[in-house]
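Changelog note: in this version the structure field was regenerated for every chain. One regenerated record is shown below for reference.
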Amino acid sequence: MADHNFLESDWDYAIVLDACRYDVFSEVYDDYLQGDLEKRTSIASSTPEWASKTFTDEHDLAYFSGNPFINDLGIPLNELKWGASSGYEWTATEHISNIIDVWQSGWDDDLETVPPDSLNEAFYANRDSVEAAERTVVHYMQPHAPYLSRGKGQKLKQIQKGIKRQGAQQGRSDDGVLSSAVGTVRQKVEGTLDGVELAQKMGLWLELGPRAVLKNGTRGAAMGLYEENLRIAMESVVDLIKDLDGDIVVTADHGEAFGEEGVWEHHIETHIPALVEVPWLEVGGVR
């Protein structure tokens, strides 16, 4: 299995699907795209780790970011108040020439995430940036949770709000207060158990909802909604690719775990297969 070699590979446009597992992608991509698919090994198991290890020089990129960790605010990862949980002294603006903060402009308050069509809209609204850059990255948040059919995303919502507030230097005293009972419970569960498998699993239960868990079990419920998220994203990817002229790849920054080796979701420097095996599809056409 080849290393990811994200920047070293030949492409004009890179579609990054956040937290996309190779195995699930391999089962669904053929419904949407044609091309040569291979499994590659990411250097990271989370977005902050992937970004800091991938973009180490100065890169002439138009980067459409649905993920708030890659932003145009000029704040190092280790100074972010929300969600980074890392010591990476990496600042996106020092390495990427032009970042379009779709995580901010394209945020959907009802879904509490950045839907894939927001990335497409931002791309079309910033054609000049694409033409001016050497290469372009479009970083969709899906299949990363929250799951769009449920329309509730507490974890990403708090990351987005915290980074946005910090970038604006508001310094409000309520930064640490989650906006809903579900978010509050999740924070207390994870904070009390601190990284234990049960905490990760209970946090995921809150995201999934009791009916889905009781019907399909935690893993089954999560993977069903995860695949649905991926398919929703792939519909937008197809729409975008139809308008692109050049070499296109579809890949991921890292994967997602559903109980493998006791891990749920994804975490920094947890290099298990579920989190580092990612797709690399050289697109040959659309279905």
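Spot check on this record: The longest helix spans residues 210-241. The CA atoms of residues 119 and 125 lie 10 Å apart.
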